[in-house]
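Batch 3, record 17
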Amino acid sequence: SQTIHQWPATLVQPVGSPLSLECTVEGTSNPNLYWYRQAAGRGLQLLFYSVGIGQISSEVPQNLSASRPQDRQFILSSKKLLLSDSGFYLCAWSVGTTSSYNEQFFGPGTRLTVL
Amino acid sequence: AQSVSQHNHHVILSEAASLELGCNYSYGGTVNLFWYVQYPGQHLQLLLKYFSGDPLVKGIKGFEAEFIKSKFSFNLRKPSVQWSDTAEYFCAVNSGYSTLTFGKGTMLLVSP
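Prediction for the assembled complex:
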């Protein structure tokens, strides 16, 4: 069966420090991968998605970037964190097709606090 | 751009009460619709989905949703809620290339 892992689970970082959040998927090949930010009362905001290695689409301009160095690995990064980057970050995957008929499966999330 | 509106941010019910959570979307074409649930301390998980066919969709744990195309709605229902249904519920609609647009969520609190 497929599983999705995220780490770390929680992270406290000072303003201006770099960030690297990792997501890996097991049990499937060539998945579509997604990074979301969840804020209380604001739902889930899609940040990035990827349909293959090295292919990244950004949904909103911001202080963050994403990379997909391997088929089942998705990394969310920042060179210098801002206070506004605090939030709950979710990684998700779906079957890797161009169809929209696929549900997304979510990881446990990372709680990031920038001080 | 696609948008999803969930009418209630917080809902408080007693056990055995009936539940209906509203969801409206903006896109006028063919849509795929989803309801996700996030129980306290757990992953976001799929409750049910609509792709085509019968507009009344049944999901896990006794939930159902009805797709009404003319109203751009996909409301979630449950005849009798339980304390264990306390969670945050998100409506979502496909918005293009395998991406989803989510509503802002509805926090449901069921008192025993």
